[in-house]
Amino acid sequence: MTTVALHHGFIILPHLWLIPLLPFAGFLINGILGARLPKWLVSTVALLAPAGSFALVAVAALGVRGGAALPYAEATGTNWIDAGMLHVDFSLVLDQLSLIMLLVITGVGFLIHVYSVGYMSHDRGYWRYFSYLNLFLFFMTVLVLAGNVLLMFVGWEGVGLASYLLIGFWYQKTVAADAGKKAFIVNRIGDFGFLIGIFLLLGQFGTLQMSEIAAKLAANPAWTGGVLTTICLCLLVGATGKSAQLPLYVWLPDAMEGPTPVSALIHAATMVTAGVYMIARTHFLFDRSPLALLVVAIVGAATALFAATIGMVQTDIKRVLAYSTVSQLGYMFLACGVAAYSAGIFHLMTHAFFKGLLFLAAGSVIHGLGGEQDMRRMGGLWKKMPVTFWTMTAAVLAIAGVFPFAGFFSKDAILMAAFTQGTAGGKVFWFVGLFTALLTSFYMFRLWYLTFLGKPRSPELHAHESPWSMLGPLVILALLSLGGGWIGAGRFSAFLAPVTGMKAVEAVSTNLEWTLSGLAVAAAVLGWLVAHMLYRRNEGREPLATAPGYTVLAHKYWVDELYDAVIVKPLLMVSRFVLEWVVEFAILGGAAWLLGGIMTFSGAILQKWQSGNLRSYAAWLAAGAAVLLLFALASWNGMLTHVGMHIGNMHIKWAGH
Amino acid sequence: MIPISWYLLLSAVLFCLGMVGFLIKRNLITVFMSIELMLNGVNLSFVTFAHMWHNVQGQIFVFFVMVVAAAEAAVGLAIIIAIFRARGTLAVDRIDLMKL
Question: Which residue of A607, A618, A656 is in closest CB contact with B23?
Fold first, then answer.
């Protein structure tokens, strides 16, 4: 334990490296020995790791509350890379931003681990599941704690790996394996942008330590735009991949093939928010590039609206939530784009609560129905699954932005920040956000009506309530969804101000504030009213099916088909061409043909030699002997010349006469 | 006294006669006899040099060559008889079944 003496007394901050290391130990133990360990031991190890990390983070939070000096950097002895001007170490940094992220990751992560014990209890790959989940926590905490961009990239890639492993967890199913591959490949495109951004950072600043980059920028206040814009846009490409924004969002809906707790933890609460975290973490770069910020805001607003419209017509309960996640991540990007980073992180936190809850509750429904995910076959579940129903209701109200649930505060903060940005663009973003809030409310209440109300449409499924290991996390997350927003955007921003900076908010009249909040709530209520009118009777038929544009939405704007035709198919064709014609035919075939040709040709010539004619053999033999003789004579002659004699001078004489 | 070079010359002539016979004759028995001629040509040069250098090794070599030639003649003649029985001819140009 490191002790920091302050005037308050002794403030204790834990060793930061323990936070990622505990889940890693869990991963190693379960990953190597899990198959041979009894189930209760696997569960114990798997739960102790995140619990320990959460306890450490809680200690750190208490230390920060007690007044520990932040940012608190912890260098870990050795350097990682020492090459010329490049120095990269393993330093971990705790500041307000990483503390919030850690609390969310380890807290929600622990709850989802507990939930998984119930949810995955019948799965044969129980130990494998938990080792992957612990591995994810390891990389995610590394990502958040990293003091330099390269270490962050390690965590970034690592969570991508864990995501891939968990999406394809049921690898026997082709769709799951394909979805894992899709997620990995699409993320690779984003990571490529991130990597180029890292190279540019290194080229411009000569260091990857984020504090040093920030200091160099601060020392040069006139430096804006130019290469900084390029760097920011490259980082943004990385963020759009990881956080499933336009145009790289396509992997997230497919990622729902993984186990539902994974969707809750990785594809809703934590990993997909890494892009938002990264932008907030490198906000000192984005602050210097108005163009990049504008692009971030446009991407965010467009994604929020786009995904929400698709979410309106999905029939798979997890797909609705997936598109909802994409849409909510769009909100966070929108917040970052109007430089309201703390509002974005605030929404990230509340979103982790209510979206994690939504997924877990959906998982509880799926579990209770024996794997059924189609909402058209649900209905009337509120009697059978009361706890799931009430917790889900809290989450729906929270995401819809109904006062006083958590989503209201964070969404309000984002809309407010957009509206008060002071540009015409800000007003547009605000309106898009408001309209998306209406859509969000609509599709969430649609899900709520279809799943829980009305008459059961599939009584043969024998719905039953889930065990308490699953309901416990639901209740805790429901309480957080209810009360998590009461921290208040103002206090939250003030807490984060040392990291993300305090946005200069123009003086806003209380009236405007109330009006905006009222409008947001009105949008939520309107969305509920529409859903109520359409789905109250809940007959299992889609009342929107005849509406104009329904086909477009039901086919998700044909984006997958478009990507397939424009990118995947041509790429496959080129790959096939390269494989079959360049590699197989030209290189391998050519080499084989050439070698074979040389042999055939020389064989055809040498074959003549092998005439089978005894006298020709004899002639060759004689010729060979003659050549050998000549050769021997010549060299003997040369040797004699060398020692000063010549064969012509040699007198052969009778020795005895 | 006959100079030593004459012996060597005779030896070379014998060898060359044998070689030419080996190359141009078609009858297997004649070819065989040509080989014997070459061997004896070599034998003569061995003996000549042995006498010239007062070294007995050359003569020992001659005995070895004679032994091997005798064995070779026995085996070779047996093969020739076998071939004649099988093919009815001793023309070397027509004994070419080993050719592809």
Answer: A618
Least confident of A377-386, A411-420, A422-431, A638-647: A638-647
Within 8 A by CB and 6+ apart from A510, the residues are none
The conformation of residue A93, written as its DSSP 8-state character, comes to E
End-to-end CA distance of chain A: 112
What is the 3-state secondary structure of B63-99?
HHHHHHHHHHHHHHHHHHHHHHHHHCCCEHHHCCCCC
Residue A613 contacts B where some CB pair is shorter than 8 Å: yes
- Strand bridging mode A79-83 / A72-74: unpaired
In A381-423, alpha helices (H): 386-400, 406-419
Which residues 6+ apart lie within 8 Å of A193 measured at CB? A233, A234, A235, A236, A237, A238, A241
Percent of chain A with pLDDT over 70: 94
Nearest chain A residue (CA) to B34: A618
State pLDDT tens for residues A68-104: 777 888 877 778 888 877 888 888 899 889 999 999 9
Q: Which residues touch B39 (CB under 8 Å, ≥6 apart)?
A: B18, B65, B69
Q: What is the mean pLDDT of chain B?
A: 90
Mean pLDDT value across residues A489-501: 81
Partner-chain contact A615 B23, CB within 8 Å: yes
Closest CB from B52, B53, B95 relative to A614: B95
Compute the distance between CA of residue A276 and CA of residue A257 in angstroms, rounded to an integer. Answer: 24
CA distance A112 to A355: 12
Cα–Cα distance, B63 to B42 (Å, whole number) = 12
**CB < 8 Å from A in window 51-90 of B:** 52-54
Substitution target in B94, B96, B97 with the highest count of A β-carbons within 10 Å is B96
Tokens of A170: 């049921």
